């Protein structure tokens, strides 16, 4: 039987240890009786509380390495005075009394590497790594060295040579260190072949211990009598919500709680839609039930709300955090166990890898759940027997708020989400099971405030209803699209060859590769190519081929620079007022005196502003300087009428507007030229930049990997651009060459 009693030395005060000093133990395998596991849990708790528990040390990032080498001035040597000086410069938080021991430990580790054949470069890399680890993950451990109880360090899993030496450094400066591997000694034996750096405790068994069975939570079994949506049948959602509990049961004597959870998107007829909402609100108020209407973004938790969950810390594992938050809910309430269950259901399916995000998400959800449970379950027993509580959320919603609605639907209340604007709705991609009823009321309409009065109605004729039904049959999931069916698009810039530019240039969006529609948006496959040189040096044929590419929806540029600032337009200085932390202020911009796009349809204005924000967010423009957002907004608030008409007329499933640039000069593109070009790429334009000289132009401010650079032939210089929008005199009726010939000839 394995004797692990020697590990107890880790838990004794330094003054009573025999022999004295800190320890470096390696534990391989485990015992059959669970003695090691009991000691391990005790040690792990101490390491998590006042030390360090890890399964590896990540290599320092490039920024960390550059910062360290910058402070050290690039000098490196094993001389002790130099190491001590660099330790003081880099690890200023380390007490003076500890620095000699730390320097000696680092020097010993480097000497060990040198004896094993390491050259100066290997030693320098190891030294940089040790110092970055001491500054980063082990920093808080060093701050605790010197007390009665040494800080505890626990390393579990496979280990490298540098990690073994680093654990040895920590032990030498005053930490107790355990290395643990239940499965195999192989990685440690490779890193420390002599086994002299640590003391071995080998168990009889190799293999991971079985996880202990978790105790059932107190809310286990809550919600078993909850029936969400299954009873609704063919009833419209807004009618089902108005039924009392007896009507919902329909004679079924079982003690079930029957509720509605639905997501209503779109609106066919504005007046009818708004009247339906107005009458629903009236009837809910007349019913006497407990309900609320949320019309604004849900306010974040107040400090006093978060204080209820102060026992939940970032150090807890995910299951522990969920349980602590759930158990912090008020006990003894009619809703307690249902709310605890709802919280655990949501956060148990949250898969984001960032632990800080998980912590913030779960605490916010716990605060919100408690807030709404206390507000909506406040009615007396008579109210709760007649109707369940109800929540209507109206308007745009974020993912955390959508997750809250999902959770509230698991607590025994009716939940209805309503928004006429389908764009950006998180429910279709929500990480939680699809348990709501989808009520699609028609196409997307702009969001308006909740109706406060009845709207004037227009009656529909039989022919109108028949036409709408035919429209639904033709254009719902059939691959056919009505004119201007969509108001949003996302560009998918294709990587193409030279011949594919010729093949795809005349094609409508819906016939191109990678075209798709998803969540109310069109993914538009567009082209962005720079074409250098002239095939065979044949200039007449070259100009003819460019003429063949000019369509009625082509914006033609033949001179550089081509962006012409308007002295009366919005300057970069004026544009700064509408930028806050890199984010555009659309409402403030639309109200500005120099905003020129107010005559455009609302969806066109919103589309332009959305793409301006996208250009600020994406990394397309380089060498733009610190004022790039203001310059970007200034340029894109001064588009000329021809471009604006092309943007307004862009039907995303059909013909794609074009930007065609012919650049025969040595003048590089200005920042403003590049901003305009990159913006049109994000709008979805096809862009071709003909550069017979092969000179740089786009590359001055647009990332080269954002477009294709294609070579068509030999470079030609000192050219003049002829008239391109009309056929040259003497041509055969002005007939353009065929698409198979426009870039490559016969």
Word description of this protein:
The protein is of the alpha/beta class. The chain is built from 26 helices and 22 strands. The strands form 6 sheets. Strands 2-3-4-1-5 form a 5-stranded parallel sheet. Strands 9-10-11-8-12 form a 5-stranded parallel sheet, covered by helices on one side. A 5-stranded parallel sheet has the order 17-20-21-16-22, covered by helices on one side. α24 (628-636) crosses α26.
Termini separation: 87 Å
C-alpha Rg, in Å? 35 Å
Q: In percent, how helical is the residue content? A: 25-40%
Average predicted local confidence, pLDDT: 88
Strand order of the largest sheet: 2-3-4-1-5
Largest sheet: 5 strands, parallel
| Helix/strand class | alpha/beta
Measured by DSSP, the beta-strand proportion falls in 5-15%
Q: Provide the low-confidence segments as ranges.
A: 472-476, 728-742
> What spatial form do the alpha-carbon principal axes imply?
flat
Q: Total strand count, please?
A: 22
Give me the number of helical elements.
26
């Amino acid at each position: 039987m394995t004797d692990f009693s020697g590990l107890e030395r880790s838990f004794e005060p330094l003054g009573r240890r025999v022999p004295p000093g800190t320890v470096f133990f390696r534990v391989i395998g485990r015992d059959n009786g669970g003695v090691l596991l009991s000691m391990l849990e005790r040690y792990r708790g101490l390491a998590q509380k006042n030390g360090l528990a890890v399964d590896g040390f990540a290599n320092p990032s490039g920024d960390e390495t550059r910062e360290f080498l910058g402070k050290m001035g690039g000098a490196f040597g094993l001389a002790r005075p130099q190491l001590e000086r660099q330790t003081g410069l880099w690890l200023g938080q380390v007490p003076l009394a500890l620095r000699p021991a730390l320097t000696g430990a680092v020097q010993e580790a480097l000497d060990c590497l040198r004896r094993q054949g390491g050259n100066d470069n290997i030693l320098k890399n190891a030294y940089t790594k040790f110092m970055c680890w001491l500054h980063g993950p082990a920093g808080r451990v060093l701050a605790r060295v010197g007390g009665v109880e040494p800080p505890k360090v626990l390393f579990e899993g496979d280990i490298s040579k540098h990690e073994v030496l680093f654990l040895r450094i920590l032990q030498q400066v005053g930490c107790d260190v355990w290395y643990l591997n239940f499965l195999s000694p192989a990685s440690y034996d490779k890193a420390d072949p002599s086994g002299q750096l640590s003391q071995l405790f080998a168990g009889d068994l190799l293999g991971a211990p079985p996880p202990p069975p978790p105790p059932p939570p107190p809310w286990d079994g809550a919600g078993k009598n909850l029936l969400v949506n299954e009873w609704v049948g063919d009833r419209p959602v807004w009618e089902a919500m108005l039924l009392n509990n007896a009507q919902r049961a329909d004679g079924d004597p079982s003690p079930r709680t029957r509720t509605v959870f639905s997501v209503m998107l779109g609106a066919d007829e504005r007046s009818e839609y708004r009247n339906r909402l107005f009458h629903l609100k009236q009837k809910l108020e007349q019913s006497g039930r407990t309900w609320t209407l949320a019309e604004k973004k849900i306010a974040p938790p107040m400090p006093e709300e978060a204080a209820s969950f102060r026992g939940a810390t970032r150090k807890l594992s995910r299951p522990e955090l969920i349980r602590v938050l759930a158990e912090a809910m008020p006990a003894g309430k009619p809703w307690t166990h249902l709310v605890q269950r709802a919280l655990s259901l949501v956060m148990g399916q949250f898969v984001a890898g960032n632990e800080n995000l998980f912590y913030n998400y779960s605490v916010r959800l716990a605060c919100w759940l408690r807030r709404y449970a206390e507000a909506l379950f406040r009615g007396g027993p008579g109210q709760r027997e007649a109707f369940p509580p109800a929540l209507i959320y109206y308007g745009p919603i974020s993912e955390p708020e959508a997750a809250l609605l999902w959770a509230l639907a698991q607590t025994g209340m009716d939940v209805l989400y309503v928004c006429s604007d389908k764009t950006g709705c998180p429910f279709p991609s929500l990480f939680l099971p699809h348990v709501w009823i989808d009520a699609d009321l028609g196409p997307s309409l702009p969001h308006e405030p909740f109706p406060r009065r009845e709207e004037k109605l227009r009656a529909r004729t039989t022919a109108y209803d028949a036409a709408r039904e035919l429209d639904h049959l033709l254009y719902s999931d059939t691959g056919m699209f009505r004119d201007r069916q969509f108001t949003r698009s996302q560009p998918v810039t294709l990587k193409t060859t030279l011949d594919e530019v010729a093949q795809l240039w005349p094609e409508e969006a819906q016939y191109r590769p990678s075209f798709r529609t998803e969540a109310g948006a069109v993914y538009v496959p567009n082209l962005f190519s720079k074409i250098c040189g002239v095939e065979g040096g044949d200039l007449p044929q070259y100009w003819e081929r460019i003429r063949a590419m000019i369509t009625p929806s082509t914006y033609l540029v033949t001179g550089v620079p081509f962006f012409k600032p308007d002295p009366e337009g919005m300057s970069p200085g004026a544009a700064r007022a509408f930028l806050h932390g890199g984010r555009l202020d659309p409402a403030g911009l639309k109200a500005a005196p120099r905003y020129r796009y107010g005559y455009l349809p609302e969806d066109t204005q919103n589309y332009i502003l959305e793409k301006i924000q996208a250009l600020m967010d994406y990394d397309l423009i380089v060498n733009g300087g610190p004022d790039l957002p203001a310059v970007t907004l200034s340029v894109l608030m001064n588009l000329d009428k021809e471009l604006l008409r092309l943007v307004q007329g862009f039907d995303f499933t059909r013909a794609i507007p074009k930007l065609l640039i012919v650049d025969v000069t040595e003048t590089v593109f200005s920042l403003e030229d590049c901003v305009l070009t990159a913006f049109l790429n994000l709008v979805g334009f096809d862009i071709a930049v003909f550069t017979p000289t092969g000179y740089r132009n786009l590359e001055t401010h647009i990332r080269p990997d954002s477009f294709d650079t294609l070579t068509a032939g030999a470079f030609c210089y000192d050219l003049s651009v002829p008239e391109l929008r009309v056929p040259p005199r003497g041509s055969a009726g002005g007939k353009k060459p065929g698409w198979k010939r426009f870039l490559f000839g016969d």
